[in-house]
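re: that complex we talked abt at group meeting.

here r the seqs, copy pasted straight from the sheet so there may be weird spacing, ignore it
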Amino acid sequence: MYAAALVLAGCLLLVATALPAWLAHVDWPRRSPALALVLWQALGLAAGLLSLALLTTLALAPLGDTDLDALGHLGGARWPTVAFLVLAAAVLLRLLTVLVASTARTLKARHENRVLVDLVASRNLLLRGASVVDHDVPLAYCLPGLRPRLVLSRGTVELLTSSELQAVVAHEQAHLAQRHDLVVLPFVALQATFPAVPAVATAQAEVALLVELMADDAAAHGHDRTQLARALWKIGTGGAPLGALGLAGDDVLLRARRLLEPPARLGLPARAGVTLLALVVAASPLSALVVPVLV
Amino acid sequence: MWRLGDLERTVMQALWAADAPLTGRDVAAALARPDLAYTTVLTVLTRLEKKGLVRRDSAARAHTYTAVASREDHVTDLMQQALGHAGDRAAALQHFARTMTADEAAALRAALDEV
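got the structure back, here u go
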């Protein structure tokens, strides 16, 4: 059982520090964003499960050589077992409550905004039913959910040419259709749970960027990439009050350069390798069950 | 076919256009839509009150209704919500682009000019 704890701790160290650092540093996620996203999801899932498995294994280790054996001797548990089990339960509880609270806050913010959008915006059927708000500041965003809204300001409609506008609408529609909000949500919650862990902040920022790249690619499918890059420039310099949106989030410049000079998609062997890595990472918590049987 | 959302907007427009608080009957008259039952108008007003968009005054014999804020105020609210970039907001709304710094804008301009 202590061998299993050692393996789990090693995996956790890799999954929570080395692999995120590597994934944020390398260049290929720009070439195959969807694949990189899957790997981030595997890392996030594995980090959570490995933490819980490690604590549980440490709790059960003094009681027996395998999990089953240890569970049979739970009656003889002493304080370290109780302490580790309480800790495991606390971690699980905290992860779940933050996820629920974060989801609730997001849904509330979306609902409040949608009420206002429906109240004051007019629907433009030429722009696939986008809601247009009568305001000068250029703005383009979507409200995901069961009743999604694609919101543009009059400033955006006036600033962009028709083809640029269609490309922006396609970008936002890709967010809505591929439910990128659901992809981002767990990572926002994870960051709310562990605000001080660098890898978690990195993961959240990278995932936010990757869904933008995916939406860019989807929009570039039926529209001109250059038009989308121009739209990025126009909206990014269109006079929104500086500071309000000035926080670095998605990297606009990186996206624009990628649109102007699209990188080749990752080759098949590399894609297969990354897929295998994601599978291994996602399966790594199972070592809690396998290792005690083998050793 | 009228969606309730459209009805809510129409009722709000009637309230915004009015100088004084309106009764349910005033609103129904202002809409000038004979196909809308008075009770439907009241239902919409109650919904709008629940949403915090309309204030009901019960002092008079017939209840009167006023818009809580002007259309312009709501637009300002909406823009502030949309431009706010706190964590939850960022997750709630998916923006197309953020404001660029001067350096970023210059770099992108140069890249666009090369195309």
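couple things i noticed - Chain B has two domains: 6-67, 71-114. Strands of chain B lie at 22-23, 54-57, 64-67, 94-95.
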